[in-house]
Amino acid sequence: MGVMQYRIMLTQQPDGSYFAEMPALRGCMSDGETPNEAVENIRNAARDWIADCKERLIPFPEAG
């Protein structure tokens, strides 16, 4: 399962930067100066989020 299958919400901030979150992964969020950077950063954050769940044996939602 890849993190690319989770929905990403991307919002431009008043300062011109971008905020990204994956609603299915509660609390998984990041940002970036450009939309592409924000998406790359949220994908990395999601990989870490999922790895932490696996390490701690915590169930997490299936992508899709």
Descriptive report:
The mean pLDDT is 93. By secondary structure, the protein is α+β, with helices and mostly antiparallel strands. Strands 1-2-3 form a 3-stranded antiparallel beta sheet, covered by helices on one side. The protein has one domain: 2-Layer Sandwich (Double Stranded RNA Binding Domain), CATH 3.30.160. A hairpin with a 7-residue loop joins strand 2 and strand 3. The N and C termini lie close together (9 Å). It has 1 helix and 3 strands. It is elongated, with a radius of gyration of 12 Å. 33% of the residues lie in helices and 19% in strands.
- Estimate nothing, just give the exact number of structural domains: 1
Helix segment count? 1
- The Cα radius of gyration reads 12 Å
Question: Within the CATH hierarchy, at the fold level, what is the topology?
Answer: Double Stranded RNA Binding Domain
Helical/strand content category: alpha+beta
Give the number of DSSP strands.
3
Contiguous uncertain segments of 5+ residues: none
For the biggest sheet, the summary is: 3 strands, antiparallel
Which band does the percent of strand residues land in?
15-25%
Shape: elongated
